[in-house]
Design a protein that fits this description.
Helix content: 55-70%
Number of helices: 3
Largest sheet: none
Low-confidence stretches: none
Strand content: under 5%
Radius of gyration: 26 Å
Mean pLDDT: 90
Shape: elongated
Structural class: mainly alpha
Amino acid sequence: MIRTQIQLAEEQAHALKQLAARKGVSMAELIGRSVAAALERESAEYGERVRRALSVVGMFKSGAPSDLSVNHDKYLDEAYGAH
């Protein structure tokens, strides 16, 4: 475990203290649980965003040349040279 300090507004500290007492745990335990839940939720949301992004890969045609990833500099030069 790593010991750390945080700053809370008075109202937050008071509400946390009351909630911790009702749950029969320390404020540190309650804060640790909250951090764990927030990290788990963020990880799940990130995983869902990645899954959704990957689900559309290859679904659409852009009309770009099939060798664009290899010859991108050539096509960029042509595009700028056209102006």
